[in-house]
Amino acid sequence: MATWSFETFAVVFFGSVIGTALGCLWSVVLCALLIIVGIGVVTAGGSDFILNQIALGPFFGPHLGGFLVPILASAYSAGVRKNHPTGNGKDICSPLIATSWDVLVVGGLCGCVNWVIYNVIIMVPGLKEFDGMGLSIFASCILARAIFTKEGPLGSKDSIREIGLLKTDNGRIAWQANQSTNFPRAMVFGGCCGGLFGAIAIKMIAALQPLVDSGMVEAGTIQSCAVLIGWACAIFSLLPAFFSNKNFANVPSWHSQCSVPALVAVYTGSVVAAVIAGMLMWLLQELCARLFLNHASNSFCDPPATAIAFGTLGVNLLFKPEFLGLSNLFIK
């Protein structure tokens, strides 16, 4: 679909309204399911339409109705309309269908705005070295916070003054206290996430090379599949959160520790490098939570998406040949 056509903006709006109604968590799980289906079609030698146009594109991408938009609509519902189901704009579990028509419309309009932001990012030199979806998600969350809840990027000044910017009050304000208060356990977990999906990425690209050689599938699409399969699996694993009284305490958030390490593995061919990247991505995700989420009073800014945005920048600067080109140091 043409990037700037009326048809494209229409499907962005439609998908964003539906995502708003479903709520953030249901929407992103549905998006992950579409990604898994799309990867299956591609690896069978079929079209990339489901993957690139529906799951990652204007229909229901994670930077639109498939994740971001319900976050923005929640901030509007809680901060402006005062009709959020739980009254908490940081609640990403609750569907918003029971709010009001304007919340749904605001969600649709936010999707259209972020479609513009995303496409500008991927065209601008320098900015396109970030993960475009992750950076647009981060930028829109911060923008929505300022507009709908009148807070800055770091959240409540009172909370920062009372507790300390990088502190969590022994986990009380932590995004996921189970992960935030036990660094050794989280580092082991993050490293294993990176190792597993780094290895999968390496083997997946090798296994699907015949499809590229035959011209059935583009090499870039196969690389996307190898990087995204971990992200989709990790998102799909959030389903238990719906059946645990909306408590994320025992449901790890691990998609940033899968996708960026998989990208490292693609560049280097090294599972060890992917393990290290998984550990570093957990640390970066936690830093993003402490900077941009924990002190916010009524809006959400996704730590994994933010970590993916900045982590991808670091990986590209380290390993792309036009920058430091460190991938040349690895024997593939």
Walk me through what this model shows.
This protein is an all-alpha fold. The chain is 63% helix and 0% strand. Helix 9 runs antiparallel to helix 10.
**Helix amount, in percent?**
55-70%
Task: Work out the number of β strands.
Answer: 0
The arrangement of helices and strands along the chain is: HHHHHHHHHHHHH
What's the mean pLDDT score? 94
Quote the beta fraction. Answer: under 5%
Shape: globular
Biggest pleated-sheet summary: none
Structural class: mainly alpha
What kind of assembly state do the chains in view correspond to? single chain
**Helical segment tally?**
13
Parts with pLDDT < 50 across at least 5 consecutive residues:
none
Distance between the termini: 37 Å
Report Rg.
19 Å
SSE arrangement:
Layout: H1 6-22, H2 24-43, H3 49-55, H4 68-81, H5 101-121, H6 132-149, H7 157-163, H8 177-180, H9 183-213, H10 219-236, H11 256-268, H12 271-292, H13 303-319
Key descriptive features of the protein:
332 residues; mainly alpha; 63% helix; globular
Short description:
The chain is an all-alpha fold.
